[in-house]
Amino acid sequence: MEFLSNYKISTSTMALVEEYHQDYNSIIYDKNGIYCTKQTVRSLLDEACIERISTYDGRIKAVRKRFPYRKKTPLVICLQKRICAFPITSPDNYGCKWIFPYHIHTSIMKGGKLIAFFKNGAQLALTCSSYVFNRQCERTANCLNYFQNNLLD
């Protein structure tokens, strides 16, 4: 795992994992490798939104205004590049994992745990049921499609 002092979320970001470690705060699953950084997951997400002229809170508020997704609200980061993510648990829970669904190949239950398999062959154990995972994927797709369609009007 390579340490990065400044990571920017892009179309190659697959997942973000909050981690308590003396040397880093986040583990980043990227198409090009697995990285760690002192940046927090929330700061990574907020900075990605700011780069696209918004904020994490603004994007979450917009989704909640249009959809009844009050908990585990999906985050649409960039409509043009279809960058979006969803939390597996409440983002307020320490250790929350954020998944960027574009990169998901499949998921399976194995030994009582859900494992997400990414298109590049990487895998990540998740602490949710298949139902929650699939629902989060669906909610995220709904948000992305809704805002993309309204952007074209």
From TrEMBL:
InterPro entries: ComK. It holds the Pfam family ComK. This is Competence protein ComK. It comes from Bacillus lumedeiriae.
